[in-house]
Amino acid sequence: MESTAKKTAVFPLAVKMVMIDLDGTLIDTVPDLAAAANRMLSDLGRPAWDEVYYRRWIGNGVPRFVKRALTGEMQAEPEAALNEQALELFRRHYGAAVSGLSRPYPGVVEGLEHFQAQGFSLACITNKAEAFTLPLLRDLDLYKYFHLILSGDSLPKQKPDPLPLRHACGHFGIESAHGVLIGDSSNDVQAARAAGMPVICVTYGYNHGHDIRHSLPDAVVDSLTDVPRYLRLQA
């Protein structure tokens, strides 16, 4: 497909580090998330939701995801005691089966292999808690590609705050303009813009049901295998 590029972006982008989001970009995690959430709801005597709802609700970390499963709304707040109980149940169910149904999207392994071969520093930047992030990446044999993994609870703030992106730049000793974020949602675009770095988004994934083009990333691609044409390794 054709890319949707901002006029200020000059391709190929000269970067040293490629940061990649996890849920909805690297891996389709909804099947396991939905299964765990429905087990949680069953424990609470509540009806299950169809997977299509969970695909809209993912993207702002586990606590908000659980609240959406409880209320059926994006920003509603359930009763505090119920929410605490539900969160504990969800974490137990999801931790027990974090990778049973989840799979990398087509082109992900090939894309990671290319980035690695070209000499880019690779980082995974996700809002998923570390207790779920690391087992998931290990189980699906993706952990080995990353020089840095920042989860949703690794730092005081998570995307769309730019802190994780800036932290990654500091870790690798580069300026923000020499990193690029690959993601699937408006959270990723907001974080990259706030950090002063380019962002490329995939057409698939989770963006609360909205077309990612409306968030105006620097480019839009169908697969990680399409990304290399937009990048070159900064000397």
Nearest-integer average pLDDT = 95
* Amino- and carboxy-terminal Cα gap: 29 Å
| CA radius of gyration | 17 Å
Going by helix content, strand content and strand pairing, the class is: alpha/beta
- Give me the side-by-side strand order of the main sheet: 6-5-2-7-8-9
| Tally of individual helices | 8
Helix content: 25-40%
Topology order in helix (H) and strand (E) letters: EEEHHHHEHEHEHEHEEE
Notable characteristics:
single chain, 235 residues, alpha/beta, Rossmann fold, DNA polymerase, domain 1, 2 domains, 6-stranded parallel beta sheet, two-stranded parallel ribbon, 8 helices, 14% strand
Detailed description of the structure:
With 235 residues, this protein is of the alpha/beta class. The protein folds into two domains: 13-28 and 103-233, HAD superfamily/HAD-like (Rossmann fold), CATH 3.40.50.1000; 30-96, DNA polymerase, domain 1. It is built from eight helices and ten strands. The strands form three sheets. It has a six-stranded parallel sheet, sandwiched between helices. A two-stranded parallel ribbon has the order 1-10. Helix 8 links the parallel strand 7 and strand 8. The chain starts with 12 loop residues before the first strand and ends with a strand. Residues 1-7 have low confidence and may be disordered.
